[in-house]
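If your schedule permits, I should be very grateful for your opinion on a structural question. What I wish to show you is a protein chain and, alongside it, a tokenised description of its three-dimensional fold. Would you kindly read the sequence against the tokens and tell me how you understand this chain to fold? Here, with my thanks, is the record as I have it:

===
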Amino acid sequence: MAALARLGALIEVIAQPIYTWLFGIATYGLYVVLWSAVNMAEKIVDLSLTQALQRIVPVEDEEAAHGAVKFALLVTVIPASLIAAAVTFFAPQIAQWVSASPEDAARLPQMIALFAWALPLWTFVEIATSAARARRAFGPEIRLRIFWEQCARLVFAVGFFFAGFTSSGLLLAHLLSLALVAILSVRLLGRYYDLGLMLRVPVPKPLRANVLVSGIALSPSAIARRVLNDLPPIILNVMLPGAQGATAAGLFGIARKVASVPLIVRQAFLYVLAPLSSAQAALDRAEIAPLYAFSSRLSAALVLPLGGLLILLASDILSLFGPGAGAALAALVALTLGRMGEAIFGPATPIVEMTGHRLLPLLNSAIGIAVWGGLAAILAPGLGAEGMAIAVAIGAVVIALAAVFELWLSDGLVPFDFLFLRGLLAGGLGLGLLAAAGLALEPLAAPIRAILLLATIAPLCWITLRIGLDREDRAALGALGRKLRLA
């Protein structure tokens, strides 16, 4: 269910070319930089209470669960609002550090002051939707954040462009879409919590301490992972002057967004396994092993053909982003390979976080960031977005590998058995068939080749799942598996 809901992320990938055509790569790059800054600030402000709720809500009583969510909202949204007010006040000074095209530079202080208010909105959405996820309500939360948010943003962006907002239109669209999703998040909270009880319930000191300690313990590792995802375009923007810095950030943003498609599979398991692992760890930690192994096998069978398709169609996809976007080709390939590696190594990271290993996620992230930082310092000055993408890809895979190794040492959880090898070989077979089809179709015109390759991916994934999963795994896919005749 979570994987199907995550398919809404494809709307975001489809929307990005529209944004670059309407507003240009430099303006899109400025938007990527400001949104990355908001994302990083949110991860600091929320104190990882989004993850702490996954630990606390499944095991607490109803009154304590409501109190935990109430406390999490208060201690995150209020500081986020104060930070937004400070950024608004100091926007002219902050604008001096941001590279932008001449057209955007004139309005940059106003754009920064306006977009700062995305921080409290996004903080509220993150806490509210994580509270729903803690109730194991995966589908509604993901559809709200991925599908409806992206649809609203696309509609607002097109509307603002035709209304003449050529520089600030994309930022305004993002802000309004967040406001809409924040309103819908209140309704989502009301489905899984009693809002009246949440307003009335006291939050005793032991509960406050439990929420804060659980969150703050996870916060450094969460911030570190966010640094790896959002700091690269900011560094590129600051490192290169004017439109050059904005364009480099835009190219990296394009590559990062397109390369996120293989992560649909991995993110589905990340969303689901965090609360499930937390609840299961309180009962019998050994029962986490089947969940871990199943998700790793399924990821291996699906991600290789999906990533291969992205690489084969990379040039065609980038051509949709308008003139100049082809410069992101090497960055897109590097990030896609990195995402494939992350997904194949499975969802070890949330299991480590949710089963009491509070220092290990920080250690993993520190190792990954050290690898990324060293490689970025060497590669980014000369290669720009391409060098940064290579550094990010390697750093992300190192983090995933470290979590796998730690679960093996601490809990004896190893997903790499014969069944995993079967899924991996099936995914490799799908990748090989796809590559052969790409070579055979090379003489055709690019649009025809792209359409034919896209047409092959669904039956190819069916084959990899049919071959790569055993009968029990296919039966675990439930009604969807039966409908697709996999079971």
Summary: The chain has a mean pLDDT of 84. The longest helix spans residues 205-239.
